Input
Amino acid sequence: MIGFTLITLLYILFIVFVCIRILLSTQYANKALAYILFAIFLPVVGVGFYFLFGVNYWKKRRYSKKTIQDNEILEKLKKGIVQFDDTAIQHQDESVQQHTELASMLVRDLGSPLTKNNTVKLLKNGEEKFPELLEAIKNATHHIHIEYYIFEYDTIGTEVIELLIKKAKEGVKVRLIYDDFGSPTIKKATEKRMRDAGAEVHPFHKVRFFLFANRLNYRNHRKIVIIDGQTAFVGGINVSDKYINNGKNKLYWRDMHIRIDGPAVYYLQYLFITDWKFCCNNSLKTEEVYFKKLKETKQDSFVQIAASGPDSVLPSVLYSILQAIYMAKKEILITTPYFIPGDSIMDALSVAALSGLSVKMLVPGVSDSRIVNAAAKSYYNKLLEAGVEIYLYQKGFVHSKTMVTDSMLTLLGTANMDYRSFELNFEVNALIYDKEIAEEMRSTFFEDLKDAEKIDKDTWLSRPWHVQLPEKFARLFSPIL
Output
């Protein structure tokens, strides 16, 4: 009896210790609460999950070093090769003038300049992205830098790899970063073939057993391609056959990507160079060959890059989205596949709708994650009550990550509207201050609405409790999904 009492007491003290540790080490209250509830009600599973996924044993040591190195590289660029034009923010373009505070915030926070004289091309789905990408790779003469979360060794993946091997044999410098969790089909034999041809290939984090959970939790979700320092691709489309709607896939996959030609490529190149140094400890010299003098472009788009991750001092991607919402005057159009937004996004969208703005959201009707989709649905009630219109995409799975405000500003990139993108993943978004691009994106959004069903507020809010309960339960764990 005494032994049982002692074990019980030790157990209670251990749970109390875990809860105190969670409170002290977790920044956000709702995330801390999720871990605490998990630890109390599912002690063995919950405590184990927290120590595997919730405790970052190496974030401060590893990522703080990366932050210092990244800042040093950026300062070298500013002083040496890249002369960023600080006058772009004072430009009289209406799209820029309406968002001066947003542009200034990213300059101060990230050192990410607002660049002008960019040509931006919208690419819808894999059918438009991959032919454009393959052609750009074929035309490369000096270097090809590629960074992807998912790189599958399927039909399109094989085609890209074979082309990269060909270019490497021609003497073009080929460097590939892939996420080890997101790209399990990249085999050692494939890497060896690429390296034998002269290409360099590295995982961002090599997932090993003893660091499996922590490295799995912090993923490189970026999709960046830079060719000859002149052309860049960024957006939501990974390298995989599922993004190509050619009739062979069961599920229609709706996504967006962009091609950029112009000085905005410089900051994407900088991101690749810093990620490359981190993943293989091989510093690329900040030479002019990677930041070439750019050709004149036919278009005059203003573009700025927002990027953040575990190495960021501030959640810059989140802040840029919030500021764009705050600055909207008439309309906000959002497409996101995963909507687990947190209080700041919820409040900003609710206030915008209550203030008379037209706020529309396009989200999946069918998702590739049932628990994430269930958690997302739990957030719809408040938004619907505030006047936000929510549409469920029916044609397939919508994977686009875009926002258009007032037909003037477009945000397009890799970040979802969820905790993982804002806190855990390495993400990158392009902010395009251009009325023509915004109008094109707006038209695309309303085209997608033709394949969606609008949620009826009264019907949704009156759903029975047993339908809403699983959604509310899933929401408890939303900060750790």
Summary: Residues 86 and 208 are 44 Å apart (CA to CA). The chain has three domains: 2-54, 59-89+117-299, 316-480.
